[in-house]
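assembly run, all chains below
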Amino acid sequence: GNSVTQMEGPVTLSEEAFLTINCTYTATGYPSLFWYVQYPGEGLQLLLKATKADDKGSNKGFEATYRKETTSFHLEKGSVQVSDSAVYFCALSDRRDDKIIFGKGTRLHILP
Amino acid sequence: NAGVMQNPRHLVRRRGQEARLRCSPMKGHSHVYWYRQLPEEGLKFMVYLQKENIIDESGMPKERFSAEFPKEGPSILRIQQVVRGDSAAYFCASSPPGLAGGRGNEQFFGPGTRLTVL
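ok done. output:
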């Protein structure tokens, strides 16, 4: 079945550091891929998405590229801020049905 | 345009009681999804509903759990005779109707209800 694997946290970085959170997936067909962010005490917000191979999703300085050959969708940001501290979820949606399959989440701490 | 609303935000129940969680989708959205997040886990799909219809309940436990989305009013996730293992955050998401129902459309999430079973 479909699944998402992302690097375990917590990840602790200093402000302005480069961020990579790895995500790989297993899916039949051609899923859509997402990164969601959950700030403390809040629900999930869609951060970015990509719907086909080689698409790059980007938002708020974050980027992720849909790599079909490596079945990956790694999240990157060139210079993180304290306000980026949150839990980040990689996810996929198989367009044949309606479920979103989530990874376990990666907690990110940014130190000032 | 208000986002997805869920209430209560926090719910405490004793073992054996019933829990009712409510979700009001975004205006214009006719598709509702419920997910459960256990501590230190990702979200797991439970059920997908349209107005007055359950479309996919493959993630719902077979006993004690039920969901509805009536013609009027919010969607309700009901857990009967709660046990400690039901303690989790329950998230609702909604999406607009699309060319093929809600399939493939972006889902917008509510803030969640955190259920604690004593």
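The interface with chain A takes residues 4, 6, 31, 33, 35, 40-45, 48, 55-56, 58-59, 91, 93, 101-104, 106-112 of chain B (CB under 8 Å).

Chain B has a mean pLDDT of 90.

not gonna interpret more than that til we talk
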